[in-house]
């Protein structure tokens, strides 16, 4: 079908003590369309100054990719059903915790979309159906075992 690529770049600062773990986790993600995103380990995992809070961490990217994928399908399904979406804002949240087997994992992602509509908005049942269909179609949600819920 399709192949997707990302280039992840990190370079050691020779003035840091690498052997003691005292090195920056800041790095960058470069994508085929030219976007370059500053990235880092999460400051919840690696404390400052060895992490960069301004960088996107993998956990945030995981949550954002689930939210973005869901949103894109939701908007398209709404369009196909004859509804007009004016805006869609999702303050999504992921939970990193220890599983029963002792491994740390993103165990849950809560999507909290707020949608504004133009014209005649769908009723609550139609909105729930759009979210259900978007979740079922989302490539990212279909790729993970994390529980993903939608709180609208």
Helix content: 10-25%
- The CATH architecture assignment of the largest domain turns out to be 2-Layer Sandwich
For CATH, the homologous superfamily of the largest domain is named as: K homology (KH) domain
Biggest pleated-sheet summary? 3 strands, antiparallel
- Tell me how many strands there are: 8
Report the CATH topology name of the largest domain. Answer: GMP Synthetase, Chain A, domain 3
Q: For the CA atoms, what is the radius of gyration?
A: 19 Å
* Average predicted local confidence, pLDDT: 95
Low-confidence stretches: none
The top-level CATH class of the largest domain is Alpha Beta
Distance separating the two termini: 32 Å
What is the 3D shape?
elongated
Your description of this structure?
The protein is an alpha+beta fold and 152 residues long. It folds into 2 domains: 1-56, K homology (KH) domain (GMP Synthetase, Chain A, domain 3), CATH 3.30.300.20; 58-150, GMP Synthetase, Chain A, domain 3, CATH 3.30.300.20. It is 24% helix and 29% strand. The protein has 2 helices and 8 strands; from the N terminus they run E-E-E-H-E-E-E-E-H-E. It has helices at 58-80, 124-137, and strands spanning 6-9, 27-31, 36-39, 84-90, 93-98, 104-111, 113-118, 147-150. The strands form 3 sheets. Strands 1-2-3 form a 3-stranded antiparallel sheet, with no helix packed on it. It has a 3-stranded mixed sheet with strand order 5-6-8, covered by helices on one side. Strands 4-7 form a two-stranded antiparallel ribbon. Helix 1 (58-80) packs across helix 2 (124-137).
